[in-house]
Design brief:
Elements: E1 4-10, E2 13-18, H1 29-36, E3 47-53, E4 59-64, E5 70-71, H2 75-87, E6 95-100, E7 103-109, E8 116-123, E9 143-147, E10 150-158, E11 162-167, H3 173-184, E12 194-202, E13 205-212, E14 216-218, H4 222-234, E15 241-246, E16 249-255, E17 260-266, E18 268-274, H5 277-285
Parallel strand pairs: 2-3, 4-6, 11-12, 13-15
Antiparallel strand pairs: 1-2, 1-18, 3-4, 4-5, 6-7, 7-8, 8-17, 9-10, 10-11, 12-13, 13-14, 15-16, 16-17
Length: 300
């Protein structure tokens, strides 16, 4: 059986879809690292591993960062995976659900081909216990954080995965790449965190630069867009309809009356292919014998 893969990007944030029904490889930590490596592998910001189908037809997905760690949720990844489900014939309607480690999400196809999709990402929480953030139980809004000898102000949140938002007068790649890794691994965040540097443009537009946990500097991120937009709304800086501007493009965020978040954006197909036999042998050579596929906590 040939080991197929499918590559997509959402505003420059690229993922490889590996369908266990079409790829017999064991997707272990070392395999993830090698496949995502842009010099020695295919290259990607992560891997979408699925679908895993239960008897009642429910669809589950695992999401892996290029460092081999597992992500709870990814907005761009979910839009990409939704398009794959359409193209592979798994999605039989315009509306369906996907189960992730970060919770269940609802999908609506704005176009039948899956190129434009709205994901209902659920409600975001500022509760320090659920993000998590160390210290007493509280909502983490405009809190001080010390990086080196500098003092900054951040708001932290979770939408199934952790985020840290910093409001700035100016945002750029240099800021994200210099402060991002220090905040990601700050002692405040026991599980590390995604970081967004946000500039408020007006009541309906924000600009963000992103440092993504386990990935690094990223051109776009769906869950980061949700977190930044929700923080701007919570602070009264923006209305409920927000366009999030990133280096890779724009995502539309809508915040409902119950504070649930809908994310709408495009997905592009890049390529599909088959891993070379030599590459497969390299992947297998790094793993102990009888290594099982990674399906922790998901339906098979």
């Amino acid at each position: 059986m040939s080991s197929q893969f499918f590559k997509y990007h959402a505003l420059g944030n690229d993922y490889i879809v590996i369908d266990p029904a079409k790829c017999p490889l064991a997707l272990t930590e070392n395999a993830v690292k090698l496949i995502c490596n842009r010099n020695f592998g295919v290259g990607a910001d992560g891997i979408l591993y699925g679908p895993f189908l239960s008897e009642d037809g429910a669809i589950s997905l695992q999401i892996f960062n290029p460092d081999g760690s597992e992500a709870e949720k990814s907005g761009n990844g979910l839009r990409i995976f939704s398009r794959y489900l359409v193209e592979a014939g798994y999605a039989q309607s315009m509306d369906f659900q996907i189960s992730t480690k970060g919770g269940l999400v609802s999908v609506h196809l704005d176009s039948p081909d899956g190129k434009l999709t709205t994901i209902s990402m659920g409600q975001l929480t500022f509760d320090s216990r659920r993000i998590p953030v160390r210290g007493p139980t509280r909502e983490v809004i405009l809190e001080p954080i010390e990086i080196g000898n500098q003092r900054y102000e951040i708001s932290a949140a979770s939408i199934g995965n952790p985020h840290c938002v910093m409001i700035c007068d100016k945002v750029d790649k240099l800021l994200a790449t210099s402060l991002g890794p220090l905040i990601e691994c700050h002692s405040m965040f026991p599980n590390r965190t995604n970081v967004q540097f946000m500039k408020i443009l007006d009541r309906n537009n924000i600009q963000i630069e992103i440092w993504e946990r386990g990935v690094g500097y990223t051109l776009a991120s769906g869950s980061s867009s949700c977190a930044a937009a929700r923080v701007s709304f919570r602070l009264g800086e923006c209305d409920s309809e927000i366009k999030v501007h990133m280096p890779g493009g724009v995502i539309d965020i809508s915040i409902s009356d119950d504070f649930s978040i809908n994310m709408r954006g495009e997905v592009s197909s890049v390529c599909e292919g088959i891993f070379a036999r030599e590459f497969e042998e390299l992947l297998r050579s790094q793993e102990p014998p009888n290594t099982a596929r990674r399906q922790e906590g998901l339906a098979t």
